[in-house]
Amino acid sequence: MEVMFRSNSQQAIGAFVLGLGLLGAVDGIVFHQLLQWHSVVMHTDRHGQIESDGWFHLATTILLAWGAILLWHGGRDGFARLPVRQLIGLVLLGGGAFNIVEGLVNHHWLQIHHVKQGDPHELWYDVAFLVWGAVMVAIGLELCRKRFRQG
């Protein structure tokens, strides 16, 4: 893992945090708002669902801002800029980590919601969500490794 962070570690952490926030925001926009498949907390009334989604969106917005600030700050004071391939790899690692943790905790362990709540195939949607997270992590790791093999 240390190999991935040869550039400024603040930038690397910022890219990872940005990925967490970005995938959280995409999850909230696509699954919560556009498709309306679920809310963060499904086992409550509509007001509770809207409120739980609001807290979720606030958290993802904070992660996005924090990641952007770390990236910006890490690129100052003469530090080497994070290579684009590594930036994308770290964002994918953060996004994949979001999917894996959110999927395991909320969908499987706590069962506070599922990707497509109430669907006869909801387990397969939950598994696909985890697989997509694992794919993002694998691609992210490969992008970070390639940078250092070639350079």
TrEMBL record:
Protein name: DUF2243 domain-containing protein
Membrane-spanning intervals of the chain: 12-35, 55-75, 87-105, 125-144
Residue runs in coiled coils: none
Keywords on record: Membrane, Transmembrane, Transmembrane helix
The keyword Transport is annotated on this UniProt entry: no
Pfam families: DUF2243
